[in-house]
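Reading a protein record of the kind used here takes little practice once its layout is understood. Each number in the token line that follows is a code from a learned vocabulary of backbone shapes. One such record is shown here in full, so that the layout can be seen directly:
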Amino acid sequence: MTRFHLILLPLLFSWFSYCLGELEVSDLSDQPPSVENTYRDQAFNEEELLKVVDELSVKLTNHTERALVSEAALQRRQNDQYPNGVCPSGGRFYLDVDEDRSCNSKWGIATPDETRTFGSTGSVCAGTFRRITCACCFTTHPITNNDAPRMDGIYCQKWEICKQEHERWSKWGKLVPHTSCVKAKKLTEIFIATKKVVKEYCTPKRWLPSTGKGKNAKFHAWAYNYSTGQFTKLKWMYLKLDGQYAKSAPGISEWGLTYSVNEHNAIELCGYPSDDMQKNSIDAELQWEVTLE
């Protein structure tokens, strides 16, 4: 049945003023500020989620839903020199990135008798590993096994994690999934496999550093297909504070909201698989980050 992966990205905070200057905070606490804190976890209830729907955030981020581009990542065969279409053809939208360079370094050929260049047709996260699919861009001699999969990858360095980014323009002028490595001090990863029971999946409770009387926390969450890297809609995304529903967003793949929190609030980001994910056994991953304002 459906497997649903949740990664709690270590929350990345923007620079903010402190009494001694600018202070950057890049991790959360996995312990409550007081042992006296107790929380009653609210059971999954769609009627209650409907009461806290964040209409504005849904409208703001609904346009970011991404169409599948796996079949359109490459153009039809043009000729022997450009087996996957004219390349590069990204024009002013294309920017050379490490994925293209990595593909070319692994699969490219540069000799007096032969030249063969490669580029990335997209990448997806696998923990701290960026899984890259490569394709031939240009070759001086016909490539006989052009349809054979050519894979590559980049490992994130210590204290970094793979982040599924928005699509970028490939060398073939197509929008493709893109990843990067971001700084991270703490990583909590939960693997959940559902068989007969479909349920909500929440990241472990986390607490902000001391915020005084409270700060506005700007949350950004997104879910993507674990195999293709394409953003995928969940039936529900929602924020829990102290075990209770705070805000929710139905039928969305990417969500942004601002909410007032303090160091005593237990923070959880939760997701509920869509009917399509359950029907087609789609693996997904939920990533999120927050900035203190």
Observations:
- The longest helix spans residues 98-107.
- The chain has two domains: 3-67+186-292, 91-173.
- Residues 3-67+186-292 form one domain.
- Confidence is low (pLDDT under 50) at residues 2-26, 63-73, 186-194.
